[in-house]
Amino acid sequence: MNMKKSFLSEFSQQLTGLYPYIGTEEFTVQLVNMFKSLVPTDDVMVLLFPSKKLPVIEYNDIPSEQATPMVDQYIKGAFLLDPFYLAARKNNKSVFSHLKDVAPDAFEESEYYKTYYKYSGLTDECAYLIRFDDEGANFVIIGLGQIKNDSGFSAKDIENLADILPLVELFTQKHWKTINNESELEQNLDIRQQLETGLDCFGTSILTDRENQTVKMILQGYSSKAIAGRFKISVETVKLHRKNAYAKLDLGTQGELFNLFINSLMNIENYSGGDPLIAYHSTKVK
Questions:
Q1: How many domains would you assign to the chain?
Q2: Which tens digits make up the pLDDT trace of 18-75?
Q3: Could you tell me if 55 and 196 lie in one domain?
Q4: Does residue 283 form part of some domain?
Q5: Phi then psi for 95, rounded to 5 degrees?
Q6: Helices assigned H by DSSP within 93-149
Q7: Whether residue 182 is found in the same domain as residue 207
Q8: 197-201 — which CB contacts under 8 Å span 24+ positions?
Q9: Which comes out higher in pLDDT, residue 135 or 148?
Q10: Domain that holds residue 7
Q11: 221 shares its domain with 245
Q12: Mean model confidence pLDDT for the chain
């Protein structure tokens, strides 16, 4: 009980100090400092997801020289495979999530994890998804990570952070709605929807529907067992779909699949739908 009171007391004090910064450039830094005072947090990333646009990094603790290649890849397409982003697309309200609750069952075996996530050095992560509108097109993800603690966030930390969601939502919504007219959130481009369409259509020009669905779930980090459960087929059938898909795409490994997917999205301009591989291969021929 004393720990709970201590947390609430600290949160109340931090929230009072945060209020004057709403609508100012200092708000995000003060918000990050608040979280770092509440729970053991080594890394914070604040990502804005403007309607129909690529994500915008509002704050990142990772040194720029280390993060640049990784973040560039994330922004231009890898974010589509981020468990927190995928969870955001499924929820129609603001939520607080722990990575272990939203990550696919084979997340640590996925190429997204091996190529992107593990280089962040995070041993555990949780995040707030805060929506700005009813449609859910505009939202922010505030990721809190641990690097130095192998055991990750404690159950009490997760409980406390979940409890304060309503006030975190209130303050962040008020801040970004206040600056909305001056920010990138109002630029009505459709890049993000194009990329999501690209993920859905990846390989459809040469793969069967089930092979396409299997490849998509592999990219997201699901195991053959989980894919089999989703489609009510045997694990051996899933493996056959994967084998056939890899053969048609001329691939040998999941790493090659991930690279082909990312490259097909990152190197195509003016994508207007359909299988992104068609336009990608045409640019390579030129």
A1: 2
A2: 999 999 999 999 999 999 999 999 899 999 988 777 888 899 887 555 555 677 778 8
A3: no
A4: no
A5: -145, 160
A6: 99-102, 111-115
A7: no
A8: 197/271, 197/273, 198/77, 198/264, 198/265, 198/268, 198/271, 198/276, 199/80, 199/261, 199/265, 201/273, 201/274, 201/275, 201/276
A9: 148
A10: 2-186
A11: yes
A12: 85
